[in-house]
Structure formats: C-alpha cells, structure tokens
Design a protein that fits this description.
The chain contains nine helices and 17 strands. It has about 300 residues and is of the alpha/beta class.
C-alpha cells in the first residue's frame, strides 16, 4: 500500500511517499481503509525526535494518529464493528511505527468510534485527538459544568476551538484568548474573546470571575491564570507539566472509545463542529506538517488519502 514514511528524525523534508506492506490485523483490531487523516503538533514533534525519551520508535515510521475511514476487515475478537462501518479513531499505540498517513491502518477497537453522520471525512479525522484532549481536560480533569466560567488559552486553535464548544455544551461560560483577527470566530463559537499580551489578567477580570482554566499554549498563560486567583486544582495544561506540582491537571490525551463516542454525540447534536483550515493530498504531507508547525492555523489541518 501507499504511505508517507520517515526513515530518520528530521524536518518535513524527511517525509516521503513509499510502498509499504499492508498492516496485519490483530485479534482486537480492525483494518481501516483511510479516507482522511489529521495533523497534530505531536506528529511533527515525534518526527523531529522530541518524544524519543518516552516512546519507542521503529523506523521507517508512518506518521499520524488521527483517522477517519471505512472498516474493510475485522479481527477475530471484534464484535463492535463490521466490514463497511464508517469509523474515526485516535490510533495511538504503544510504539511509534504504523500510523494513519497511509491507505490502510490496523486500529485497535479501544481507539475507535463510529464516524459522525453529519461530518465530512476531513472534519471527522480532525475530531479524535484534539476533541479527546479538550474533553478529557474539561470533563474529567476540571469537571466543568453549569456555573463555571472557563478561561481557555489559545481558544481559536485546533484543540481550543473544540474546547470552547465542549465547555459550552457542559453549560459553562467561556472566555477565550486569541489574536484579534480570531475574535469574531470565537464569538461564533460562543466564547467571549480577549487579546493576548500584557494586561491579559486585567482584561479577563473585567469580563468576569474565572473558576477554571485550560492552557493550550504554554509560556505566560499559567502566570496570567495565577494572577486571576483561580484555584490551582482547577487549572489544566497540555503544555506545562508544572501545573501538576500545584495540584492541577496535566493532560496527555489517551485513546478512549467511550469519550470518543460522547464527542460523536455532541457533533451529531450540532453542539460541536470541527473547523477544517486546509486539506492536503497525501503526497503533500510535508506541507501539512509545515503549516501545523507554524502554530497560527485556525482549526484543523487534514490530509486526504482515499
């Protein structure tokens, strides 16, 4: 089958189109014919070797953890799915080797849910990792609900835009930081926007009292949140490990079929929409990686495969 691979750590230039063997389908997995995959910051961080200390990597690597596609074969211990089912998945496995930037991927059922009926393939592919990150931080970690005012740093990005919608679906008021060019976009999602930069805490304070905060950008975000007097136990970050030192919640997203199904329900109910910034053909995976690494994209970046 055709796939994108890299044979050593490096920049986007190490990505190449190659022919690789079809993946084997284990007892608890299904074989998915990939329609689309999404790019996430972890993809280029893995490619550049930043996660070498915590994950075993076997070259050549097929990158990608997000997928949307159709089941074409099932393992011997899989009652959950059948051939022809349309699925999405956050297909992170224990080692880095077989990813989703390929014509086919073998996906453990614990990583999958049915595809939202009202989402395109590109939108569906953009939901799993970013959506699960936001959902697990807000729902499980911070237990956001009615009466909360949630501050979301970098609210217009791939994770942030989904976090805004999930928090609103939980009944919370949302204040989101973003550059001014994205303020109307945040308002369309139901958030009250504030600009980055000096004086952020004062601008947020003028809007309301924050009861929980989600950091998606790092840097000065946690310092600004501390200025607001938010309970440290109700601060979560996907960037800064130090948040846990004060009793907060550090999130490294994990595959969870139940959480992913809950996200699908929110999409089908019209409460969450995946904004796709750009779609590339598989052969231009390097360009997709470059764009994602720039860090200024609103919404998700997807790659079409089938």
């Amino acid at each position: 089958m055709k796939a994108i691979v890299y044979r050593s750590y490096g920049g986007p230039e190490v990505l190449e189109v190659a022919e690789v063997p079809d993946p084997k389908v284990g007892p608890d997995s299904v074989l998915v014919s990939v329609k689309a995959a999404a790019v996430n910051p972890v993809d280029w961080k893995l490619r550049e070797g930043y996660l070498d200390g915590i994950m075993d990597v076997f070259f050549p690597v097929v990158p990608g953890w997000d997928v949307a596609g159709q089941v074409v074969a099932v393992g011997t211990s899989v009652p959950e799915f059948a051939v022809g089912d349309e699925v999405i998945g956050y297909v992170r496995q224990d080692v880095v080797h077989h990813g989703t930037f390929a014509e086919k991927v073998a996906a453990p059922v614990r990583t999958l849910a049915r595809k939202p009926r009202n989402a395109s393939w590109a939108q569906a592919a953009g939901l799993p990792l970013a959506g699960l990150t936001a959902y697990q931080a807000l729902v499980h970690g911070l237990k956001v609900g009615d009466g909360d005012t949630v501050l979301i740093h970098a609210a217009a990005g791939g994770v942030g835009s989904l976090a805004v919608q999930i928090a609103r679906a939980q009944g919370a008021r949302v204040i989101g930081t973003a550059s001014e060019r994205n303020h109307d976009y945040l308002r369309s999602l139901g958030a009250e926007p504030v600009a980055y930069g000096e004086g952020l805490a004062d601008r947020v304070r003028a809007i309301g009292t924050v009861t929980a905060a989600l950091d998606l950008v790092g840097g000065d975000a946690l310092a600004a949140t501390a200025e607001l007097g938010v309970d440290p136990r109700r601060i979560s970050s996907i960037i800064d490990h130090s948040v846990a030192d004060n009793g907060g919640v550090y999130v490294f997203v994990r595959p969870d079929a139940a959480d992913l199904s809950a996200l699908v329900d929110l999409v089908e109910a019209g409460k969450v929409t995946v904004d796709v910034a750009e779609v590339f053909p598989l052969e231009r995976a390097a360009d997709a990686h470059r764009l994602n690494a720039e860090g200024h994209t609103r919404g998700k970046i997807a790659v079409e495969v089938g």
